[in-house]
Structure to design on (531 residues):
């Protein structure tokens, strides 16, 4: 079977073979399978050493101290732990949290849960480029605000927020700052000191590591305290109980190490591929980039092809593995909440495709993708009554639709 | 989403894509759906003096199942009287295309489209 060309790296990445090789050494009877919490024998000590090396690898990528890294089951858990943990710990100071409308569901749904528990949450609107401007955060902070959570890179658009500036504002106002860095780690430089970040969430499977493991950076100086969400043996300094999965952690560490080593070269290569892709399709009529032209991460590009519906485009592009902002591909009939928040009308939201490029994408892949996209868009526009109407000069906003 | 072979076939080889002259009294146009829902179908039928559909054309903005539902409909209505065409049920379309539950609404929209086209040509011919 000929597999499609994979252009959905923002959704997940394959595990780098070097990472998988390393992980394998920590599983079987002849490997280092011990429980890292076993203090009384070499099996435990070896596993613990491997975990601590990985901790250093993750810390190095972000400019943190290894003691500031807490292992979790993924970025979703890290987001839950940071937001719930910090909000609950600081509830006597206040019960107001600030986030944005375009955060990942792991953040949004966690905030909804806090609302159910009596917190007030402000959801900031992004500007038309999908960015959260620092001033928006400054304007929303109140006396009773305890936590601000803003993502570094948006997963649908690839837009990159000015985390350092937002962090500075939070510092000034003595509010804890959490950043979801699931899509930014290994793609753009991170320095938690320079960025004034108090907590930061990471995912291994977005950076050529295994699924099911992530981490939360929790600042020590000044000390950030959070209430644990997983209770048990008191692992991770009491912040997250549960036997540490050595093989997973080693995998994440190795992935982060490779990410750090390759960051400059890889992001330049991927940026060039992104430009190639965009230039290959942007000369078609009514093709729009969703997000920011200059504040973005190299690998993600979200494009609307007007007058063509997203799911039919995905079907027409079945030789490409991509992601659509179209409702048909989700269970409800509503288009992507991220694209809606940008102010895109429903029709443009339905017509969008997210292409995400990664370590194993070649120039040939991009050229093939361009050809397939052009062919599919042309064909679907031939089929589209909306394209007809547009070509006839009809203003679609004035039409009265017979929807049911 | 795994597309059924029939759905893919209608996309790869769409039948009766195009436009008829809406100003003609013999042409009925049914335009249903809305961009906000991600589905817009335009179905046009050309009816002869005996009330038989001589030609049908469609254009659809929508997912593969929507395209296939409307394409299939144009195939089915050709040669039928407008009375018979009006009777086509969405369930027949859904069954023919093996539409999954989440896509049944596409066949419903196609049924609405043919009814709207028939209504349109009747109104034109009555006036």
């Amino acid at each position: 079977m000929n597999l499609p060309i994979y252009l959905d790296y923002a959704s997940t990445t394959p595990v780098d073979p070097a990472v998988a090789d390393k992980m394998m050494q920590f599983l079987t009877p002849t490997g280092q399978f011990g429980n890292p919490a076993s203090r009384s024998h070499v099996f435990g000590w070896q596993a613990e050493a491997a975990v601590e090396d990985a901790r250093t690898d993750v810390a190095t990528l972000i400019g943190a101290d290894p003691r500031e890294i807490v292992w979790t089951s993924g970025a979703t858990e890290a987001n839950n732990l940071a937001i719930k943990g910090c909000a609950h710990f600081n509830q006597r100071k206040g019960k107001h949290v600030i986030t944005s409308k375009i955060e990942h569901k792991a953040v949004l749904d966690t905030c909804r849960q806090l609302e159910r528990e009596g917190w007030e949450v402000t959801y900031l609107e992004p500007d038309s480029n999908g960015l959260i401007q620092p001033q928006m955060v400054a304007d929303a902070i109140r006396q009773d605000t305890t936590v601000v959570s803003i993502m570094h890179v948006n997963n649908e658009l690839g837009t990159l927020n000015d985390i350092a500036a937002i962090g500075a504002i939070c510092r000034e106002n003595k509010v804890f700052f959490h950043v979801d860095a699931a899509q930014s780690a290994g793609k753009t430089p991170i320095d938690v000191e320079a960025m004034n970040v108090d907590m930061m969430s990471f995912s291994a499977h977005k950076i050529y590591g295994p699924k099911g493991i992530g981490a939360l950076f929790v600042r020590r100086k000044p000390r950030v305290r959070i209430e644990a969400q997983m209770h048990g043996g008191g692992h991770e300094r009491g912040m997250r109980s549960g036997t540490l999965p050595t093989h997973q952690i080693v995998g994440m560490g190795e992935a982060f190490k490779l990410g750090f080593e390759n960051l400059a070269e890889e992001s330049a290569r991927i940026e060039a591929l992104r430009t190639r892709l965009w230039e290959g399709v942007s000369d078609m009529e009514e093709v729009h980039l969703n997000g920011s032209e200059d504040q973005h991460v190299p690998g993600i590009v979200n494009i609307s092809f007007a007058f063509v519906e997203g799911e039919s485009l995905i079907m027409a592009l079945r030789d490409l593995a991509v992601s659509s902002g179209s409702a048909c591909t989700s269970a409800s009939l509503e288009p992507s909440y991220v694209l809606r928040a940008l102010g895109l009308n429903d029709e443009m939201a339905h017509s969008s495709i997210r292409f995400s490029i990664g370590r194993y994408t070649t120039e040939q892949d991009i050229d093939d993708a361009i050809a397939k996209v052009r062919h599919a868009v042309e064909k679907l526009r031939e089929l589209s009554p909306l394209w007809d109407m547009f070509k006839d000069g009809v203003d679609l906003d004035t039409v009265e639709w017979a929807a049911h | 989403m795994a597309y059924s072979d029939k759905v893919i076939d209608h996309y790869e080889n769409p039948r009766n894509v195009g436009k008829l002259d809406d100003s003609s009294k013999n042409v009925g146009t049914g335009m249903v759906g809305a961009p906000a829902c991600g589905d817009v179908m335009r179905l046009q039928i050309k009816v002869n003096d005996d009330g038989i559909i001589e030609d049908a054309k469609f254009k659809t903005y929508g997912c593969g199942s929507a395209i296939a539902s409307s394409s299939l409909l144009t195939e089915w209505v050709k040669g039928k009287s407008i009375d018979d065409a009006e009777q086509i049920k969405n369930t027949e379309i859904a069954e023919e295309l093996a539409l999954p539950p989440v896509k049944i609404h596409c066949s419903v929209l196609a049924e609405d489209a043919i009814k709207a086209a028939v209504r349109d040509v009747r109104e034109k011919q009555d006036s």
Q: What stands out?
A: The two ends of chain B are 46 Å apart (CA to CA). Chain B has a mean pLDDT of 92.
